[in-house]
Amino acid sequence: MSHDTIFTLLSHRHRRTVLNLLLAQYRALTLRDLRNEIVERKHGTEITELDDEQVKQTMVLLHHVHIPKLAETDIVTYDQDRMIVEPTEKLEQMEPFLS
User: Fold this and answer.
1) pTM to 2 decimals?
2) Rounded distance, CA 46 to CA 62, Å?
3) Domains and CATH numbers, the chain
4) Which residues pair with 79 in a beta bridge?
């Protein structure tokens, strides 16, 4: 993977958070789990304390923009029907850039 591709993928904090979570747990995660973690980190509070619109917007961005961008480069696989994101072997290439 080229450095340009890596830096493009890392240019948004939501994608960096997704990659860090997947590296830490190295297992499939639901889009809902990823959304919850991103929203809670961004706002520094429990998801139940936030406006539904903020939570919905993050879910839409993950589903339509950020996860597909990661899947295009085969860093993750994304089952859109089940909304499951799973790391691939290529994810390990990202680790030095996330440290």
Assistant:
1) 0.91
2) 19
3) 3-98 (1.10.10)
4) 84
